[in-house]
Amino acid sequence: MWFTAAASGVLLGLTPVVYWLIEHRLRVELDRQLEIDWSLVEAHLELDGSGRIQWRKTSPATPNSPGYAATWFDVWSVGELSLRHWPVDGGPVAEAPNATADPFHSIRLEMGGSARALEKGARVGGREVTLRVFRDESGLHRTLREIAAGFGLGIPLAALLASFGGYLVAGWTLRPISAMTEQARRITSESLGQRLPNPNPHDELGQLATVFNQTLERLENSFESLRRFTADASHELRTPLTALRAIGEVALRNPSDAAALRETLGSMLEEAQRLSDLTDALLLLARFESGRWTLRFEAVELDGLVADVCECLGVLAADRHQTLEINAPMGLVVRADRVPLRQAVMNVLHNAIRHSPPGTRVTIRCFPRGRLAVIEIGDEGPGIAPEHRDRIFDRFYRVDPSRSRQDGGAGLGLAIAKLSIEQLGGGIELESELGKGSRFRISMPAESTQ
Ligand code: ADP
After folding, report:
1. Is-contact 75 82, C-beta < 8 A?
2. Where residue 138 falls among pLDDT bands split at 50, 70, 90?
3. Second CATH level (architecture) for the domain 204-289
4. Which CA distances in Å does 198 have to 175, 204, 213, 214?
5. 384 lines ligand 1 (CB under 6 A)
6. Does residue 343 have its Cβ closer than 6 Å to ligand 1?
7. What is the pTM of this model?
8. Which fold has domain 2-144?
């Protein structure tokens, strides 16, 4: 509709201009003819013996010449009509010339319609006269009427054609949108693998479809990881719950044995502790990911942080007759939120202690590397095979599920460590040799290395 309105507007605006140009052109042409007629007639006028004005018969243009025959003209001398040549009846109305009028003017025809007149003073045999020549201008008016009629009919027709064409073009252009809308309507959380049709990725609609498809891909990935996370989390939660129920049921079969009941309660508390640790870990992950954890960056001295973590886990290492070797120089400061950084170091060190055999050595080293400060935790454990190295930071991933379960690990420790460090703007990497041990390196932007 806008297209039709615009096209009609342009046509309506142009029509008077074109009409005026044609009319002007036709009039100029008619006036030029009149000038020629006037000169021709003037050249052939003369005075006869009695002083009357007459057409020069001796000239090659005899009274029978076409110019003479076809031209209406009259000659006025001192307000009196001296000569009139009216080749066709019903010529211009017989009015005396009006000296004040425009030399070119229109005059009524007796037979109806009008003629264009050119009226100018001339000199015939030394006498001042007024010579008028006329040309029928009804042809001009007829042409203009026909042009106006053509416009009157043509403009609505053109507007109709424009609207029809506009409708077709709009329909053709918008057809991909309909297809995209149809397809988008069919996409639900169950069918996120579908994509919008994109016949031409380079035009505007194609770019929109590409962006939409990329969004769908991200959504699909998020949904997939959410689904996997929910399935893994449910599985992890179900195991201690099943154990709790089984332990309780067995104990109920023989409720009179106080010693067995006490042992059962102990086992149940252990499972409850595992459940509580697991939910804590899941909550931590959820809080990190939702972005609702407001990080409070401060200067953290690494020697203090490492000493604090080692104090917490020292008992566990001592229990396993392991030696904790600390090498953290003073003055190595990073800019971080202390809580998640401590959590990450704690998880990695806890793994090193848990996964290394008793009597081995666990080392913690802090050192600067360029504009980073690195905390390296090394052990003499079994090491991690190359095929597992990329995946051990994934949630719920365990190299040996059965063994880790006994240790109480749910496969979340390293995932939490990685997420924490990345949130703080740092990175975590692993170097490991199967059978010899592993070295985890946490690097953080250093605030000062002095
Ligand atoms: P978990 O809580 O099971 O320890 P993590 O995410 O902390 O989960 O670790 C994932 C897996 O990586 C563990 O199950 C373990 O098999 C392996 N792993 C982690 N740290 C070490 C290490 N220092 N030495 C050997 N294996 C390790």
Report:
1. yes
2. confident
3. Orthogonal Bundle (1.10)
4. 12, 11, 9, 12
5. yes
6. no
7. 0.58
8. Beta-Lactamase (3.30.450)
